[in-house]
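Section 5.1 Outputs to date
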Amino acid sequence: MTVTISWWVLPLTTTIVAFAWALWNGDYRPATGYGSIGKGMANAFLLAVALIASLIAWLIWALLA
């Protein structure tokens, strides 16, 4: 079986870039008190945006391929 580089590279690249962006822009400084809850929610929101972008890219790929 051979694996050919095809159109699946575009959504894969979108996924990698989206999650790299979310991890790069996350706030990972130490927090004290209740500030860690807000940071956790903000980081989760960034990861959710990356997940949605990734799923949309894979959906478009599945519909067009």
